[in-house]
């Protein structure tokens, strides 16, 4: 191939495949309900496999049901470049979350196959099992096992709301393979995904070059005061745990605002005791959720909370205690892979910006075991995990084109 930079994916073919996949497990409002390890998941997998085999791929399947469609390179001894995402959806999910990343990867192979483009490294299109985590918590379960975050036995023992085990359901739908999970080594891994946020569309950018994911800390706080009558307790004698909640709510907001851009913070779950209209709250238990993309900054945010919140509580005569109940350090994606995506956007003449992924993705786990990066395209109103999730054909094509150029560069096109 003399001028690879002019190569483009087939936008109509990609779009038609997205619509064809969306017919499997339709939702009730135009989206999809193709939850993991359902019959519909099995049907979607079979369709994906048939499409892969039609362009000469061979399908690998591991013991978590992760699918690996391999397109041979000119040097089979080189480690493959991986590309993919997930085909499972939320119960009221959209047609593009995850699916675009898998079928975008397939479109890269179809384009290579059609145009006779060869790479030295093999390319493998992957469908990771149970990214969504709705039927079986946690999210990104099988990429997590692949990256050594969870054991396979633990994953098999996850149960859904009806008490059905993950391991049993995987076997039932016929997609439990023999391959040892995580045994594959990767030269690199790329994931295309819709943004699931409003930034790209609001700024009129075609492409998000994902440099980091968000890390998070969940802190469970207990503020203890004294239950007493709201009518007969004089104001100066109250120990109102509800005020502690109010002050800390503001504090969390201030800390996040001080650490812009990309830091966020909120109080999500709140239990007020005794939760009666004429009793001053004696105890409030709530969770603080803080996230940002830099580890030092994230730890500083938590430190500031832990330093200031007890003082605020002391000033109003209530007690503060807290413990970290969940944490995930922010992934920083591989610089060379990120550069390949940025270069792909430049080559294609797309407007782009660096962006942080607010949501978790399979790429966040794989980043721990292989050089990884992500490319994002906009979605309408930033809406996702909703049947009304929408993207344009042009956005999908732009994302897949950038994905292709990043993959071709990394897998070394044979000129
Ligand atoms: Zn997703």
UniProtKB/TrEMBL annotation:
Transferase listed as a keyword: no
Keyword list, A-Z: Hydrolase, Metal-binding, Zinc
NCBIfam families registered for this protein in UniProt: hydantase, PRK09290.1-3
Enzyme class per UniProt: hydrolase
InterPro entries: Amidase_Cbmase, Bact_exopeptidase_dim_dom, Peptidase_M20, Peptidase_M20_dimer
Protein name: N-carbamoyl-L-amino acid hydrolase
Binding site for Zn(2+) 1: 86, 97, 193
Keyword Metal-binding on entry: yes
Gene3D superfamilies in alphabetical order: 3.30.70.360, Zn peptidases
Record gene name: amaB
Entry's transmembrane regions: none
Similarity-based family: Belongs to the peptidase M20 family.
Any GO molecular function: hydrolase activity, acting on carbon-nitrogen (but not peptide) bonds, in linear amidines
Necessary cofactors: Zn(2+)
Cofactor binding, note field: Binds 2 Zn(2+) ions per subunit.
Stretches assigned to the Peptidase M20 dimerisation domain: 214-312
EC number: 3.5.1.87
Amino acids binding Zn(2+) 2: 97, 132, 385
Superkingdom as given in the UniProt entry: Bacteria
